[in-house]
Amino acid sequence: MSHSADFTEVGASQSRPSQVRWYILHVLWSLGWLIWLSVGVVSFGHALG
Known about the structure:
Layout: H1 2-13, H2 16-48
């Protein structure tokens, strides 16, 4: 959890555009993780099925 705390401190110490950029990167990372997870679940289901 210290990793996300570091991100929060960096965002607080920088300007507004940097905060927006970090937010967008975080959203994109979350979407990518969800896509990877769903693909893994589908592949696992096909392997079982």
